[in-house]
TrEMBL record, chain A:
This is Carbohydrate ABC transporter permease. The lineage of its organism: Bacteria, Pseudomonadati, Pseudomonadota, Alphaproteobacteria, Rhodobacterales. Residues 74-265 form the ABC transmembrane type-1 domain. The keyword Transport applies. Belongs to the binding-protein-dependent transport system permease family.
Length: 279, 330
C-alpha cells in the first residue's frame, strides 16, 4: 500500500474531515428523527433535546397512519421511483450503447440532441406535458409520472453512460462477436456488467429528485389513489396550522426506502470502483 | 484448397482509404504473417477477414466460400487479440467454452475440447481462475486456448506478443510455432516486428499504407526484395542505403547493402568514421558515418574498434542491391 495513505497523521486528518462532514450532513436528519418521537409542545420548547419519558409520543405516527392512505402513497412513490429508474437505466444504456458502438450518419448530432435535455429543465414544458397527458388519458395515472421522470432522467444517463461505454475495449466486444454472441448479448451480458458503477451513479443521481418531487405529482396525478408520498404529506402542512408531529413522522418514514435503495446502489458503486482498480 | 482468398479488397473509413486493392491467398495449413509498420492497416485487414468490418469493395473467400455477408461467428475463424480481450467476469474455463456454448455443443464435447486445449497450453491448474488473477503470459495462453477450442478453419492473430516482455515473447513465439505444427491449421499472424515475421512465417505479406508491397517466403523477400521499402523493412540491423555516387561517380541510383555483407577491407572504397560500437560477443555492430550517411556493419566475431576511429569498409559487388529514384529495384 501507498505510504502516504498509511501515515497515521494523514489518516486521522482524513477521517476527522469525513466524520465532521458526516455529522453536518446527518444533523438535519437527526433532528427530524428525534422530533418525530416528541409531543408538539416538546418540539417547540426544546427542538434539540432527545425524547424522554415526559416528551415521548407517537402521536405523529398515529396521525399519519390514520390520515388518508399513507401506505398507498408509499407504494405509489416506490412504484414511480423504481419504474422510472428502471426505464432511465434501460433506455439510457441502450441509447448510450448505440451512440458509443455504432458508426452511423448523424451519430454526433444524435448525441447532442439527446444531451440537450441536460441544459433545459423539463418543467418548462409542464403545460405541454399536461396537455399531452390529458389527450392520452394518462392524467391521474402513475404512468404519467413514470413517463415524465424517465424523460427527465434520460439525457444525463445517456451522456454519462455513453462516455463509460466508449471505454469498454473494442477488442472485448469483437471477441464476443467472433464467439457468436448477438449484439443484445454483448450489450446485456458483457457491456452492462462492466459499466455497472456508472449505472449506479446514474441511479443515485436520479433517485432523490424523483422521490422528492412535488411538482409533477401535484399537476399530473393529484388524485387520491395516485398520490405520492411527498404530495400525501402536504395535507399536514396547512396555510395556518401545520401538524408538525405528522410532518416529521411522515418525513422520517419517507427516508427509509430511499436509504435502502441507496445502500443497494452504492454497494454496486464501490464494488465496481475497486474491481476496476485491481484489474 | 485455399484457406483464404482476398480479391481486390478495399476498405475506407469515410474519406480515409485504409486498404487498397488487397489480393492475397493463404493455402491450407500455411502460416502467413502480415507485416508492416504501425498504422499501415494490418489490424483493419484482419478485422475485414474476421467480418468485424465490412469490406468497402472486393471479395473475401474462406475455405472456398464467399463470406462477405457472413457474421464473424459463422466464418469458421478464431481470433486472438492484442489486448487478450478475455471476459473479465468469466473464469478461464468459461472464457474458453463460451463460443462452444453459443454453438450449442454438448457438455461432453465442451469438456473434452477445453481439456485438450488447456493441456496443450499448460492451463489445467488455472481453469477456475479469473483473468485478473493471471499473469500476462497466462492470459495470452487463455486467449489462444479460446481460439483453439473452436477448431477453426483459420486462426487470426493480431500482434499477440506485443504486450509480453522479451523473454516471454521468445517462448510464446516458439509455442505458437509448435501449435501450428501440432494443429496443422491455417494461420494468419499480424505483427510489426520483422523478427517475428521471419521466424514464424511460411509466407510473408509486407504491407505499407494499406497496399501489399510484396508476398513471398522469408528468404525470397530477404534475398529478392522488389523495392527499397521491403529491403529496408526485413532484416536486422536494417539494410544500409547510400547514394550510388559514393562508389561510382554520377550514378543516380541508391545502393543497398546488408550490414552482414559489409566487411573491413583496406581497399574497400568506403571510408567511414565510427560513431558507435555494439559488442554483442558473437557479433560486433559498427555504426559509422560516411559522407553524411549512416552505415551499419555487422562483423562476425569480436573486433577492437573504437569510437572516432576511421574504418574502410567494402562488400562483394554481387551482394549489392540497386534502387531507382522511386525506390524500385533495378
Ligand atoms: N474505425 C476507424 N475509423 C477511422 N479510421 C480508422 C479506424 N480504424 C482504423 N483506422 C485507420 O486505419 C489505419 C490503419 O489502422 P490499423 O489497421 O489499426 O493499423 P495497424 O494495425 O497496421 O497498426 C490507421 O491510420 C487508422 O487511423
Ligand atoms: Mg494493429
Amino acid at each position: 500500500m501507498n505510504k502516504a495513505r498509511t501515515n497515521p497523521f494523514n489518516n486521522i486528518a482524513m477521517h476527522g474531515a469525513l466524520i465532521l462532514y458526516t455529522l453536518i450532513a446527518l444533523f438535519p436528519v437527526f433532528v427530524i428523527l428525534i422530533n418525530s418521537f416528541k409531543t408538539r409542545k416538546a418540539i417547540f420548547r426544546e427542538p434539540l433535546a432527545l425524547p424522554d419519558a415526559d416528551s415521548f409520543s407517537l402521536i405523529g405516527y398515529q396521525t399519519v397512519l390514520k390520515q388518508g392512505d399513507f401506505f398507498l402513497y408509499f407504494q405509489n412513490s416506490l412504484i414511480v421511483t423504481v419504474a422510472s429508474l428502471f426505464f432511465v437505466l434501460l433506455f439510457g444504456a441502450m441509447a448510450a450503447f448505440a451512440l458509443a458502438e455504432y458508426r452511423f450518419k448523424g451519430n454526433t448530432l444524435m448525441g447532442l440532441y439527446l444531451a440537450l435535455g441536460i441544459m433545459i429543465p423539463i418543467r418548462i414544458g409542464t403545460v405541454a406535458i399536461l396537455e399531452m397527458m390529458v389527450a392520452t388519458g394518462l392524467v391521474n395515472t402513475l404512468w404519467a409520472l413514470i413517463l415524465v421522470y424517465t424523460a427527465q432522467g434520460l439525457p444525463l444517463a445517456v451522456f454519462i453512460l455513453s462516455e463509460f461505454m466508449r471505454q469498454v475495449s473494442d477488442d472485448l466486444k469483437n471477441a464476443a462477436r467472433v464467439d457468436g454472441l448477438s449484439e443484445y448479448a454483448i450489450f446485456f451480458r458483457l457491456v452492462l456488467p462492466l459499466v455497472r458503477p456508472a449505472m449506479a451513479t446514474v441511479a443515485v443521481f436520479n433517485m432523490i429528485p424523483i422521490w422528492n418531487d412535488l411538482w409533477f405529482p401535484l399537476i399530473l396525478a393529484p388524485a387520491e389513489e395516485t398520490k405520492t408520498l411527498t404530495l400525501g404529506s402536504q395535507v399536514f402542512i396547512g396555510q395556518f396550522v401545520t401538524d408538525w408531529n405528522a410532518v416529521l413522522s411522515a418525513l422520517s418514514m419517507a427516508i427509509l426506502p430511499v436509504l435502502v435503495l441507496y445502500v443497494i446502489f452504492s454497494r454496486q458503486l464501490i464494488r465496481g470502483l475497486t474491481s476496476g482498480a485491481v484489474k | 484448397m485455399t484457406a483464404l482468398t482476398l480479391t481486390n479488397v478495399n476498405k475506407s473509413f469515410g474519406e480515409v482509404h485504409v486498404l487498397k486493392d488487397i489480393n492475397i491467398e493463404v493455402e491450407e495449413g500455411e502460416f502467413v504473417v502480415f507485416v508492416g509498420p504501425s498504422g499501415c492497416g494490418k489490424s483493419t485487414l484482419l478485422r475485414v477477414i474476421a467480418g468485424l468490418e465490412d469490406a468497402t469493395s472486393g471479395e473475401v473467400h474462406i475455405g472456398g466460400d464467399l463470406v462477405n455477408n457472413t457474421p464473424p461467428s459463422k466464418r469458421g475463424i478464431a481470433m486472438v487479440f492484442q489486448s487478450y480481450a478475455l471476459y473479465p467476469h468469466l473464469n478461464v474455463f468459461k472464457n474458453m467454452s463460451l463460443a462452444l456454448k453459443q454453438e450449442k455443443q454438448s457438455k461432453a464435447v465442451i469438456n473434452e475440447r477445453v481439456a485438450k486445449a488447456s493441456k496443450m497450453l499448460n492451463l489445467e491448474d488455472y481453469l477456475e481462475r479469473y483473468p485478473s488473477e493471471l499473469s500476462g503470459g497466462q492470459r495470452q495462453r487463455v486467449a489462444i486456448g479460446r481460439a483453439i477450442v473452436r477448431e477453426p478453419k483459420l486462426f487470426l492473430f493480431d500482434e499477440p506478443l506485443s504486450n509480453l516482455d522479451a523473454a516471454l515473447r521468445m517462448n510464446t513465439r516458439l509455442e505458437i510455432a509448435n501449435l501450428h505444427d501440432t494443429l496443422a491449421a491455417s494461420m494468419i499472424y499480424v505483427t510489426h516486428d520483422q523478427t517475428e515475421a521471419m521466424t514464424l512465417a511460411d509466407k510473408i505479406v509486407v504491407l505499407r499504407d494499406g497496399r501489399v508491397e510484396q508476398i513471398g517466403s522469408p528468404m525470397e523477400l530477404y534475398n529478392n526484395p522488389v523495392n527499397q521499402f521491403v529491403a529496408g523493412f526485413l532484416g536486422s540491423p536494417a539494410m544500409n542505403f547510400m547514394p550510388a555516387g559514393f562508389v561510382s561517380e554520377g550514378d543516380p541510383r541508391t545502393i543497398g547493402v546488408r550490414p552482414e555483407d559489409l566487411r573491413l577491407q583496406d581497399d574497400g572504397g568506403l571510408s567511414a568514421t565510427v560513431q558507435h560500437v555494439e559488442h554483442l560477443g558473437g557479433d560486433t555492430n559498427v555504426i559509422a558515418e560516411a559522407k553524411g550517411t549512416q552505415i551499419t556493419a555487422r562483423l562476425f566475431g569480436q573486433h577492437a574498434i573504437n569510437q572516432g576511429q576511421t574504418v574502410t569498409l567494402g562488400y562483394a559487388p554481387e551482394r549489392a542491391y540497386y534502387f531507382d529514384k522511386e525506390g524500385h529495384r533495378v
